[in-house]
Write a structure and sequence with these properties.
- The chain is α+β, with helices and mostly antiparallel strands.
- Helix content is 22%, strand content 32%.
- The protein contains nine helices and 25 strands.
- It has a six-stranded antiparallel beta sheet with strand order 2-3-4-7-6-5, with helices on both faces. Strands 10, 12, 13, 15, 16 and 17 form a six-stranded mixed beta sheet that branches.
- Helix 1 crosses helix 4, helix 2 crosses helix 4 and helix 3 runs antiparallel to helix 4.
- The longest helix has 19 residues.
């Protein structure tokens, strides 16, 4: 079949992009964000954006940057800004395919966001109807953009955290989308910038996620038109929660408990959640604990792992991602109750430490120096003698070589001889 000129050019374009893709190492998130911020600060012209980016780019990987520059130029030319969701489609068609948590860009807005919660259970997004300044850290408040915000400008900074922490969830009442600018609370004495801004705050619990949105207007008393513009972007908020989530704190422990928490996407109270654990050395998960959800879908409980373990939450037929908790070996050193000498050992563990070597250290000056190595002759302890000056500070250490793979190194409390 004979092809016309435009079809031939389209084919050449596709071949060019394919060649670039094969020769181009992928950009990481930080590089993409930096390029997107630079693009957002340029005039909304693909040619101008491409020329500016090419002129200021370091050419360590020329094909890599050419491909990325073309992509950013297309984003800027689309008039939809930059988003880690769907930035090249209209809001209506993008909503069906959007994956993650954040904003879909309304017409004339720029959006930069992380898209999914990280290992801490946190995600962020920034939406603005003005270009974002390249020097801004868009994982925090975009100060440079706000300092230069014109009277017609609107910036929305949203933080998303997983529900389940009772202390935090209290401040985020369950709500349905879309959030309403009419219910936002004014923030008196808010962000300090050279020119007064209007600052408002919205907090809501949505599908297992706590949403904290701060809306900044370029004037202390925003008009109805500006508030309507902010509402149009709030209407584009998407919260795509996982069916069930789990987080833990702390994740490195000694004798203290672990708080595990998360959420289910039904948002209902009274849902049963099972916490399962796969201990070090095991090939399968076992039931470790259970709890029920509160209003809004959040849940939490306290557990006491005694070994390195991997946790997950199960709700109905869905399992969460996995989170690891590492257990620091609890070790002690003390004087014998009868006779001379000392005792050293480990306690509260689920593995035998027989014949493990323990270092006895004395504090000299500002450092700890090993003065003796003892072997645990009983399952978890042993007796030993020690010759050090009276009044010395000593401690016992189980090094990593003796603790792994199922425990972390352990350090006893300091004992004065």
């Amino acid at each position: 079949m004979k092809r016309n000129g435009s079809e031939i050019e389209d084919g050449r374009g596709r071949e060019l992009f394919a060649d670039l893709g094969r020769q181009t190492p992928p950009l990481d998130d930080r590089e993409l964000r930096a390029m997107a911020r630079s693009a957002a600060a340029e005039p909304r012209s693909p040619q101008a954006a491409s020329t500016s980016l090419l002129s200021r780019t370091h050419w360590a990987h020329p094909f890599r940057w050419v491909g990325a520059t073309v992509a950013v130029a297309l984003v800027v030319g689309s008039g939809l800004g930059f988003s880690l969701g769907s930035s090249l489609t209209s809001p209506e068609s993008a909503r069906a395919s959007f994956v993650g948590t954040g904003f879909l860009p309304a017409q004339g807005w720029t959006v930069v966001q992380s898209g999914r919660v990280d290992s801490r259970g946190v995600a962020s997004a920034v939406a603005a109807n003005v270009p974002l300044r390249p020097e801004d850290d868009l994982e925090a408040v975009p100060y440079a953009t706000l300092e230069a915000l014109p009277a017609r400008g609107v910036v929305i900074v949203a933080t998303f955290t997983t529900r389940g922490d009772p202390g935090a969830d209290f401040a985020y009442p369950p709500q349905a989308l879309p959030l309403q600018i009419a219910t936002a609370t004014p923030v008196p004495n808010g962000l300090v910038v050279p020119r007064p801004l209007g600052e408002y705050r919205l907090r809501a619990g949505i599908r297992g996620t706590n949403v904290d949105a701060r809306i900044y207007f370029g004037t202390p008393k925003p008009s109805g038109e500006l508030r309507a513009a902010a509402q149009r972007q709030l209407n584009q908020l998407a919260v795509a929660a996982e069916r069930v989530t789990i987080f833990a704190r702390p994740t490195i422990i000694g004798e203290e408990p672990v708080i595990v928490y998360g959420s289910v996407d039904s948002g209902r109270a009274g849902e049963e959640v099972t916490i399962q654990a796969k201990d070090c050395g095991s090939d399968f998960f076992r039931v470790f604990a259970g709890t029920t959800t509160r209003d809004g879908g959040g849940w939490s409980t306290v557990i006491f792992p005694r070994i390195n373990t991997t946790l997950r939450a199960v709700w109905k037929d869905s399992a969460s991602g996995q989170v690891g908790v590492r257990f620091r070996t609890p070790i002690f050193i003390d004087r014998q109750r009868q006779g001379a000498g000392f005792r050293v050992g480990v306690f509260g563990v689920r593995r035998s430490f027989w014949h493990k070597r323990v270092l006895v250290q004395r504090r000299q000056g500002g450092t700890w120096k090993t003065v003796k190595t003892v072997v645990l002759t009983e399952p978890a302890w042993t007796k030993f003698s020690l010759s050090v000056p009276k009044g010395s500070f000593v401690r016992a250490v189980l090094p990593l070589s003796q603790a792994r793979p199922c425990y972390l190194p352990g350090f006893s409390r300091t004992l004065r001889t």
